[in-house]
Specification:
The complex is a heterodimer of chains A (323) and B (277). With 323 residues, chain A is mainly α. Helices cover 76% and strands 1% of the residues of chain A. Chain A has 2 domains: 2-52; 70-322, MetI-like fold (Orthogonal Bundle), CATH 1.10.3720. Chain A has a two-stranded antiparallel sheet. Chain A starts with a helix and ends with a helix. By secondary structure, chain B is mainly alpha-helical. Chain B has 2 domains: 2-55, no CATH class; 66-275, MetI-like fold (Orthogonal Bundle). Chain B has 15 helices and no strands. Classes of the chains: A mainly alpha (323), B mainly alpha (277). Chains A and B meet through α1, α3, α4, α5 and α7 of A and α1, α4, α5, α6 and α10 of B.
C-alpha cells in the first residue's frame, strides 16, 4: 500500500513543481513589462516630484541647487499661490456641496422607475460624457456680458447684465455653476445605483411601522447610503481640487477675466512650471496639492473604516446588494 | 413614496425633472444653434434659439482655418492606442494579481491602488522632464505615454477575474496540458468581454478628453488633439463665435453618438469603475 502510494506521489510532486515553475515564468514574463511601464509613468515621476521640490531649478536643469524647504517657505508668502489655494478651496467646497445635494435630490426623484426615467438618466448624464473643452467654450459664450444667453434670461427677471467672467468673484461663481452642471449627472447615477440596491423590504418594513416618506428617506435610505455618500464627497472634492481645463478656457482670451481672476492651484503649477520654467517651485506647489489629496483620501478611509455601527450597516447593505 | 402619489405631486416632480433636463440640454442646443448662424445673427439681441437663416459656412471656415481633420485623426489614434494598451496591461496585471502568488505581490498591488488616487497634475512636471530626457517631447510617444496604464483598470479587472473565473477551471486547463500563456489567451481573455468593454469605453473617454498633458507636451500643431486644437483656436475666434461653436460641435458630436448607442454600457462602466473603489 505504502509503496504504491509513493509511486503515484513522486510523479505528482514532479508535476506540481513543473506547473509551479511554469506559473512562475508566466508571472514574471507578464508582470515585469506592466510594472516597468507603471514605474516609468507613475512611480518614478511621483517620487521625483518630491526631489524637485527641494531644488532651485534652471530651464535646462531642474536640480540646479539644493535649497531644502526654501520653495515651500516662499510658496506660503506668495500672494498668487495663496490666492490660488483660496480659490481652489472655495471652488472645491461649493462644487462638491451643490453637486452632491442636487444629485441626491434628483436620485430620490428618480428611484421609483417610470417610463421616462431612462430618458432623464440619459439627459442628466450628457454633460458627464462630453469632453470639457467644447463645454467650456460654449459656457464662455453663454456667460458673454453683452450677447450671452444667461444675461438674456436674467433680463426677463429685471436683472441688469453682469460681466460674469470679467470680475474675479463672479468668474469664480460662473465656473462653479458650470462645473456643477458638468458633474451632477455622475453623482446622481452613483446615488441612483445605491438607492436602487436598497432592498424594498427595508422601506416597506419602515412604512408598516408608520414612518412617513420623509422619515424613510432620512432614517432608512440615507444611513444605508452613507458609504456611497462619503465616496462621492471625496471623489468630487479631489477632482475639484484638480480643476484646470475650464479655468484655462473660460478665463483666457478677450472676453475672459484678467490673468489672476480665477487662478487655481493647477493653473499656478502650469504657469510656473511651463511658462516661467520655475520647475522646482512648481513641483513644490504640486507637493502641496498631493498632500491635500492624500488628506482627503485618508479622511475617506478613516471614516468608512471606523465604528461598528457603520460596518454593520454596510454589511446589511452588501447583503442587500448581493440579492 | 406612496402617500404622496397624488397626481399633482407626480406632475410637480416631472415638471421639476424636465426643467432640469432643459438646463442640461440648453448649452448643447445653444452650441448647435450658434454653429448654424450667419455672423450678423450670432451677435443679435435678443438671442435667437433657432437661426433665421441656416448656414454651414462656419463648418467650412473651421476646416479652412484649422486642420481639424488632423486633430480628429490625432485624437482617435491617441485614444485607440491608449485604450488597447490599458486593456492589455489591466487584464494581464489583474489576472496575475488575482490568481497567482509571488513574492512582493501585496506590496505591488497596494502600490497600484495607492497611485490610483494621485492625479496626473501632481507629477506632470517630472514626467515632462523624463520626456525631455528621452526626446519624446512633441512626439506621439510622449503624447500617449501617461495613458498607457490605468490603476483603476488593474483593480477593476482583478475584481472581475476573481469573481467570474473559478480556480478549478484554470487547474482543469493545466491538467489538460495547456501552457500558462495559452490559458490566458484561450480561457481567461475570452471570458472577460463584458468588463473589457466597460473598461475600454472608460479608458477611451478619459484619453479623448485629455487636455493638460497634450497642452504641455506638444509644441506644434501636427500633434494637437481635438480638445487641444479647440482650446487653442478659441483664442483666434473670440470675435467670430460661429466657427468656434462649429468646432465644438465636431468635438461633441462623435461622443454623443457613441453615448446614445452604448448608453447602458457606458453608464455601468463609468459608475462601476468608480464604485468598486
Amino acid at each position: 500500500m505504502k509503496k504504491n502510494n509513493n509511486t503515484i506521489a513522486v510523479p505528482l510532486k514532479r508535476y506540481i513543481s513543473q506547473t509551479e515553475k511554469k506559473k512562475r515564468i508566466f508571472v514574471y514574463c507578464s508582470i515585469i513589462p506592466v510594472i516597468a511601464i507603471f514605474a516609468f509613468v507613475r512611480i518614478i515621476p511621483i517620487c521625483t516630484n518630491f526631489v524637485y521640490s527641494l531644488f532651485e531649478s534652471t530651464v535646462v536643469n531642474p536640480t540646479q541647487k539644493f535649497v531644502g524647504l526654501k520653495n515651500f517657505i516662499e510658496l506660503f508668502h506668495d500672494q498668487l499661490f495663496l490666492l490660488s489655494l483660496r480659490n481652489t478651496t472655495i471652488f472645491a467646497l461649493f462644487v462638491t456641496i451643490f453637486s452632491v445635494a442636487i444629485a441626491i435630490l434628483l436620485a430620490a426623484l428618480l428611484t421609483t422607475q417610470s417610463k421616462l426615467s431612462p430618458l432623464y438618466e440619459t439627459i442628466y448624464f450628457l454633460p458627464v460624457i462630453t469632453p470639457m473643452v467644447p463645454v467650456a467654450v460654449v459656457w464662455k459664450w453663454i456667460y458673454d456680458p453683452t450677447y450671452g444667453l444667461l444675461n438674456y434670461i436674467l433680463s426677463w427677471f429685471g436683472i441688469s447684465p453682469i460681466g460674469w467672467l470679467v470680475y474675479p468673484n463672479t468668474a469664480l461663481i460662473a465656473i462653479i455653476i458650470m462645473s456643477v452642471w458638468k458633474i451632477v449627472g455622475y453623482n446622481m447615477i452613483i446615488f441612483l445605483v445605491g438607492m436602487r440596491d436598497i432592498p424594498e423590504t427595508y422601506i416597506e418594513a419602515a412604512r408598516i411601522d408608520g414612518a412617513s416618506s420623509n422619515q424613510v428617506f432620512w432614517k432608512v435610505i440615507m444611513p444605508l447610503l452613507r458609504p456611497i455618500l462619503l465616496f462621492v464627497f471625496v471623489i468630487s472634492t479631489i477632482n475639484s481640487f484638480n480643476v484646470f481645463t475650464q479655468v484655462f478656457i473660460m478665463t483666457s482670451g478677450a472676453q475672459g477675466a484678467p490673468g489672476n481672476a480665477v487662478r487655481t492651484i493647477v493653473f499656478d503649477i502650469y504657469e510656473n512650471g511651463f511658462r516661467y520654467f520655475r520647475t522646482g517651485y512648481a513641483a513644490a506647489e504640486a507637493v502641496v496639492l498631493f498632500v491635500i489629496i492624500l488628506l482627503l483620501t485618508f479622511i475617506q478611509f478613516g471614516i468608512s473604516g471606523k465604528g461598528d455601527s457603520s460596518k454593520k450597516k454596510r454589511a446589511i447593505f452588501r447583503k442587500g446588494a448581493v440579492k | 413614496m406612496k402617500e404622496y402619489s397624488s397626481i399633482w405631486v407626480k406632475i410637480l416632480k416631472h415638471a421639476f425633472l424636465l426643467l432640469g433636463c432643459v438646463v442640461m440640454v440648453l448649452p448643447f442646443v445653444w452650441m448647435l444653434s450658434t454653429s448654424l448662424k450667419i455672423p450678423s445673427e450670432v451677435l443679435s439681441w435678443p438671442p435667437q434659439l433657432i437661426p433665421k437663416t441656416f448656414t454651414l459656412q462656419n463648418y467650412v471656415t473651421v476646416f479652412q482655418t484649422a486642420p481639424f481633420v488632423k486633430f480628429f485623426f490625432n485624437s482617435v489614434t491617441m485614444s485607440v492606442v491608449s485604450t488597447v494598451c490599458i486593456l492589455v496591461t489591466s487584464t494581464i496585471a489583474g489576472y496575475v494579481f488575482g490568481k497567482f502568488n509571488f513574492p512582493g505581490k501585496n506590496f505591488l498591488f497596494v502600490l497600484t491602488l495607492a497611485t490610483s488616487m494621485v492625479p496626473l497634475e501632481v507629477y506632470m512636471i517630472p514626467l515632462y522632464m523624463q520626456m525631455v530626457k528621452l526626446s519624446w517631447v512633441n512626439t506621439f510617444m510622449g503624447l500617449v505615454a501617461p495613458y498607457l496604464i490605468m490603476s483603476y483598470g488593474i483593480f477593476f479587472m482583478r475584481q472581475n477575474i476573481m469573481s467570474s473565473i473559478p480556480d478549478e477551471l484554470l487547474d482543469a486547463a493545466r491538467i489538460d496540458g495547456a501552457g500558462e500563456f495559452s490559458i490566458f489567451f484561450r480561457v481567461v481573455y475570452p471570458m472577460l468581454s463584458g468588463p473589457s468593454g466597460a473598461l475600454a469605453i472608460f479608458a477611451f473617454q478619459q484619453t479623448w478628453a485629455a487636455f493638460i498633458w497634450p497642452l504641455i507636451v506638444t509644441s506644434t500643431r501636427d500633434l494637437w488633439t481635438m480638445e487641444l486644437g479647440l482650446g487653442m483656436f478659441q483664442y483666434r475666434f473670440t470675435v467670430d463665435l460661429g466657427p468656434i461653436n462649429a468646432g465644438s460641435m465636431l468635438s461633441v458630436f462623435p461622443v454623443l453618438i457613441v453615448f446614445l448607442f452604448l448608453r447602458k454600457k457606458i453608464v455601468r462602466g463609468i459608475t462601476l469603475t468608480g464604485l468598486k473603489n
